[in-house]
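FAQ: What does the model actually see?

It sees only this:
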Amino acid sequence: MASMMRAIFIIFCFPIAYSQMVMEPLLPLKKLQLPSGTVGPEAIAFDILGNGPYTSVADGRVLKYQGPRIGFTDFATTSPLRTKEVCDGKNDPNLLIKCGRLLGNWHWVLL
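And it is asked to produce this:
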């Protein structure tokens, strides 16, 4: 029974997936420019609606890409203590507790 279901799945799904790969041309890749002074993007993510990409940067901000006309804008921050004046554009390990950092540099903070 399981092998029959597997065969049906392959028979119906493979042609659809294959046609999508063959019929749709691959979109060219583009390099997205981050705001000037921004360093250390680590990862990108998309939300469930396909919006984004979102990326975290070294100064504790999460940026969201708004399209080619607008570019990246501030979406969220990683610390309630964070201020734009002190943190924006900084990559100082001494400011990690105040400014935050989503992924990297966690090893600098001693708990």
